[in-house]
Write a structure and sequence with these properties.
This protein has 1 helix and 10 strands; from the N terminus they run H-E-E-E-E-E-E-E-E-E-E. The strands form 3 sheets. The protein has a 4-stranded antiparallel sheet with strand order 3-10-8-5, with no helix packed on it. The protein is globular, with a radius of gyration of 20 Å.
Length: 153
């Protein structure tokens, strides 16, 4: 029997308590649409950074101009996990959702699969499913839009 070489992860040597490093990580999280990250340091400690919904990535605390925005006319059901998108649960024969279907917040509209792990893709709000933006079997990343949803009136 042949032994395989042990794989080692790349090591990040940054000081996570440095405000500049934290600012950069927060920027990466926001641009990826992620709300949290957990990193294991070289010495075995775990560092978890969680974005606050109301947090601002601006470093200063000075006054900010508040610009009103119009409500979005379409919301997105996004992948909560990176993997292959499935429109049908492997144990069932019918798709979890279809275009034109009415959904409520939290309804499962598809799945993301990595190996044996299957994670649901849920509708964030009530509405009508417009269209699949990803084909079944396609590789998706965390936060990728799977479905567009027309909000309920």
């Amino acid at each position: 029997m042949m032994k395989r070489a042990k794989r080692t992860a790349k090591v990040m040597t940054e000081d996570f308590t440095d405000p500049a490093v934290m600012q950069q990580i927060a920027t990466w999280l926001e641009s990826a649409g992620a709300s949290a990250i957990e990193v294991e340091t070289e010495d075995g400690r775990h560092v978890r950074i969680v974005m606050d919904d109301e947090a601002s990535l601006r470093a200063d605390d000075g006054p900010r101009d508040m610009v009103p925005t119009a409500p979005a006319s379409v919301v997105a059901a996004k992948a909560s996990f990176a993997g292959h998108f499935l429109d049908t649960h492997p144990a069932r024969g019918t798709p979890a959702a279809a275009e034109g279907m009415a959904v409520t917040a939290g309804d499962i509209v598809g799945f993301t699969k990595v190996g044996p792990l299957l994670m649901p893709v849920r509708a964030p709000d009530a509405g009508t499913l417009n269209e699949y933006l990803v084909k079944a079997g396609a590789l998706v990343g965390y936060g990728d839009t799977i479905f567009s949803i027309e909000p309920a009136q």
